[in-house]
Amino acid sequence: MVPTWQLRAAFARRLSAMYGTEVPAYTTLLDVAGQVNDEVAARDPDAGRLGALSRVTAERHGAIRVGTPGELRQAAQIFAAFGMHPVGFYDLRDGEEGAVPVVSTAFRPTCEEELDRNPFRVFTSLLTTSDRRFFDAGLASRVEAFLARRRLFPPELLALAERAEQTGGLPEPQAERLLTLAVAAFALSPEPVDRAWYTELERISAVAADIGGVTTTHINHLTPRVLDIDALYRRMGERGITMIDRIQGPPRWEGPDVLLRQTSFRALAEPRRFRAADGAVTVGSLRVRFGEVEARGIALTRAGRARYDHLMAETDRRMALSPGADRQAVARDLWRQGFPATEHQLAVAHQAFFTYRPATDRPRDDRRPPADLAGLLTQGWLTAHPVVYEDFLPRSAAGIFRSNLTGDGTRDADLVGDPFDAHRLSEAIGRPVLDPFALCARRQDHSLRQALFTLQASAALRALDDGELVDTEPAGADPGVPDPAR
What is its EC number (predicted)? Predict the structure, then answer.
């Protein structure tokens, strides 16, 4: 049997090789990212704090787009074969500029062990033809009819994927067949594109055209992870690759790296075949695929995320007042004033997620731990280890999309958008869309409970050595130790 995690790792590698043949600049991106990562690892002994170099090197996130709930359910079945589950809800329809008619989730592993083995993610977007701000009833009906006629994934692939999910892997011959079919399903099709139909949808949104204007889906981008995104941004430019205007996400500063910083090279003109109304086939080009790269930081709690969102909004406000200012400098000043400057501050303020372990070098004469997390950390009872942010930022994703679109498209802002949330997306997928905050909190709380129980057990043993009796109930039952929920 080839187990699930090995299938996932092979899937990521093969997609990467395939995408490199389709978009040669992606290979350049991988080369530069590898060089930067090696240099950072060589000079910084703490470079692996947010993931070992082997994990960072293998790490990818892909992106695909589908048109209907049925297509989304089938994509979910394929990703389930690789141990990837829908996490997070992202609505990209409401940005002030460059809004696109899609809602999205990310399929990825969810447990720490599987993430460490291979954290492949696929950001998957669903076209919202029911949103009248983008599609009137007539156009929506025609798009839906077009989508109903196509088949993205062959039945054999779906059957193999279902079997792999049920059995936790596949025998080698079937595993090879699954991988071959899955990679082929996300390759760029050579089939001619109906020029008139594509152009009509492109007036709504280039993303809508990329989903509903063709008969297949494809990898839209495949993103490596880099340890110094600012260095990569400079070096790609030095190699003659045109990058988008800035790095999305929090600024570079002296404090902790949090959430996600992203950038990309601009979508390149790729040759595509087009069919005219008279049936004639000609060669033209489209700009829909780009080379994204990301640097990951610490996952923030809801409170930390609220602080982040406030600082981003304040950055926007100040930039509107001074359009010529350096956005990075403006944001950096705000972060210095309003964001925790150390991991310790993030932890004690419950602004970010950490796993906790008992310190191994506490002096023997300490008897009982303090009753609060700040005391446990400050006095050296516990050590905090940051949880990597495994998810995405809707604002940054929209910024990447907007920077690579050929136009802003059209949206009737006077109409009300079609309500869409994680529950509705779960119904469309036929699987629950998991809450990324809940996943992080579960991991943090489990580690803290284990650490506190170990501290209590150690205190009890010391007390017994000294002829004392100490309560050894599990952590949380003793008022002398903090409840992780606090």
Answer: 1.13.11.93
Residue 440: how many other CB atoms lie within 10 Å: 22
3-state secondary structure of 195: helix
d(CA 354, CA 129): 40
- At the top level of CATH, the class of 2-299+389-434 is alpha beta
Q: What is the pLDDT of residue 152?
A: 96
Nearest CA to 157 out of 142, 176, 138, 172 is that of 176
**What is the rounded distance in angstroms from the CA atom of residue 132 to the CA atom of residue 62?**
29
**What span, in angstroms and rounded, lies between the C-alpha atoms of 169 and 5?**
8
In whole angstroms, give the CA distance from residue 311 to residue 259.
14
pLDDT by residue (tens digit) across 279-329?
A: 999 998 887 777 789 999 999 999 999 999 999 999 999 999 998 899 999
Q: Which of 26-30, 37-41, 94-98, 394-398 has the lowest mean pLDDT?
A: 94-98
Give just the sign of the alpha carbon dihedral 263, 265, 270, 276: positive
How many whole angstroms separate alpha carbon 160 and alpha carbon 175?
Answer: 8
Q: Which two tokens stand for residue 456?
A: 């209590």
Place of tokens 């695929």: 289
At a CB cut-off of 8 Å and minimum separation 6, what does 331 contact? 250, 251, 311, 312, 315
- Residue ranges per structural domain of the chain: 2-299+389-434, 304-385+443-465
